[in-house]
């Protein structure tokens, strides 16, 4: 399959997202936001007690391979907004990691990652603790869009998790939000979209003080062609991180392949350049380098693990999931309130 064929599919995917966003904005009567559980689960380590029931946390985590046998630490895959792990990863990153004999887990975020991100972070905290207990090794986190950002909330407010993580690798991560969310939330929108507006209270708390922590490598991979996490071009690219004691690599795929065309959904699914940078990070302590990437990847239509025979069906499933969730997810007329633990001065000194 030639690169031109891949690019011809872009308008179809983009059209799906645009229609879905229009449906969401046009909704006149918002539904109530998904309820939060006030039940405390069994908790260990530092940080606030987890309010999500322990059974729900266990059920959200699915692991493949012997986590203790991972030479570079097991990988945690975190899906993006509107997505579940299967739709996001089972036709690309999961088969690619299995082919590399890389043990990994996926975590399902509540409400297809459309609910309160503060609740979603509890699922990530529990996943990190469980994986580290099984592997006895630091975890490498790979997340798409919101999935690249929500682990940072976990690291900020549950300090014990910083000892469990080797790296945070984001693909078009919404670290500083998106102007698109302002438009989508003009009338009402899902809680996670409220929280991904650039001026949200959630993002102000997340990015107060240091954005990274010592001992953790942060590789942020993004595309100038991202039309969902906007703006994602320097000098104010949303995905980029700049402060704190962590090692940071901010890399646009266009630095590897000038003129490369990869919009948001492709970055989170089939993009060969993004995947090459992810693998480079996984095999170099979590810190990727554009200089190490073989430029032959620029002519590669899709990443390893993607089956050309099933690609059209999987792309259709992927786009349909995004459209359906955007149109039907419960909506709220305001951003969820910050949890008490996040309303005090930032906890970077913890």
List keywords for this structure.
single chain, 350 residues, alpha/beta, 7-stranded mixed β-sheet, 11% strand, disordered N terminus
Kindly describe this structure:
With 350 residues, the chain is an alpha/beta fold. Helices cover 39% and strands 11% of the residues. It is built from 16 helices and seven strands. It has a seven-stranded mixed sheet with strand order 1-3-2-4-5-6-7, sandwiched between helices. Strand 4, helix 8 and strand 5 form a beta-alpha-beta unit. Helix 2 runs parallel beside helix 15 and helix 7 packs across helix 8. The radius of gyration is 19 Å and the shape is globular. It starts with a helix and ends in a 7-residue tail after the last helix. The N terminus and C terminus are likely disordered.
Secondary-structure topology with pairs:
Layout: H1 3-8, H2 10-26, H3 54-60, E1 61-64, E2 75-78, H4 85-89, H5 93-99, E3 104-107, H6 110-113, H7 117-135, E4 139-144, H8 146-157, E5 165-171, H9 179-184, H10 191-195, H11 201-206, E6 217-222, E7 247-252, H12 253-256, H13 264-267, H14 272-282, H15 311-328, H16 340-343
Parallel strand pairs: 2-3, 2-4, 4-5, 5-6, 6-7
Antiparallel strand pairs: 1-3
Helix pairs in contact: 2-15, 7-8
Fraction of helical residues: 25-40%
Which blocks of ≥5 consecutive residues have pLDDT under 50? 1-44, 346-350
- Counting helices, strands and paired strands, the structural category is alpha/beta
| Total of helices | 16
Strand order of the largest sheet: 1-3-2-4-5-6-7
N-to-C SSE string, H for helix and E for strand: HHHEEHHEHHEHEHHHEEHHHHH
Q: Please state the CA-atom Rg, rounded to the nearest Å.
A: 19 Å
Question: What best-fitting shape do the alpha-carbon axes yield?
Answer: globular
Number of strands: 7
Strand count, sense and closure of the main sheet?
A: 7 strands, mixed
Mean pLDDT across residues: 89
Q: Give the DSSP E fraction (strand runs of 2 or more residues).
A: 5-15%
What is the first-to-last residue Cα distance? 51 Å
């Amino acid at each position: 399959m030639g690169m031109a064929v891949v690019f011809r599919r872009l308008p179809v995917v983009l059209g799906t997202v645009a229609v879905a966003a229009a449906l969401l904005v046009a909704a006149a009567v918002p539904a109530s936001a998904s309820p939060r559980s006030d039940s405390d689960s069994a908790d260990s380590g530092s940080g606030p007690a987890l309010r999500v029931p322990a059974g729900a946390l266990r059920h959200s985590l699915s692991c493949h391979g012997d986590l203790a046998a991972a030479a570079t630490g097991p990988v945690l895959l975190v899906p993006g907004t509107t997505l579940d792990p299967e739709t996001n990863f089972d036709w690309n990153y999961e088969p690619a990691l299995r082919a590399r004999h890389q043990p990994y887990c996926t975590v399902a975020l509540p409400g297809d990652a459309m609910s309160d991100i503060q609740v979603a972070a509890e699922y990530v905290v529990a996943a990190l603790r469980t994986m580290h207990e099984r592997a006895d090794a630091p975890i490498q986190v790979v997340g798409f869009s919101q999935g690249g950002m929500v682990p940072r909330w976990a690291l900020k407010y549950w300090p014990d998790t910083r000892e469990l993580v080797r790296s945070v690798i984001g693909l078009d991560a919404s670290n500083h939000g998106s102007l698109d969310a302002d438009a989508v939330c003009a009338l009402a929108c899902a809680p996670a979209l409220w929280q991904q507006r650039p001026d949200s209270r959630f993002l102000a708390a997340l990015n107060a003080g240091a954005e990274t922590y010592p001992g953790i490598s942060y590789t942020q991979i993004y595309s100038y062609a991202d039309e969902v996490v906007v703006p994602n071009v320097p000098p104010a690219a949303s995905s980029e991180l700049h402060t704190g004691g962590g090692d940071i690599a901010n890399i646009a795929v266009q630095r590897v392949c000038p003129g490369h065309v990869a919009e948001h959904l492709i970055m989170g699914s089939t993009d060969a350049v993004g995947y090459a940078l992810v693998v480079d990070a996984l095999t170099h302590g979590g810190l990727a380098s554009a200089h190490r990437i073989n430029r032959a990847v620029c002519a590669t239509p899709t990443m390893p693990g993607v089956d050309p025979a099933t690609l059209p069906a999987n792309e259709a499933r992927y786009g349909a999931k995004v459209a359906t969730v955007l149109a039907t997810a419960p909506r709220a007329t305001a951003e969820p309130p910050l949890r008490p633990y996040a309303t005090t001065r930032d906890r970077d000194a913890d």
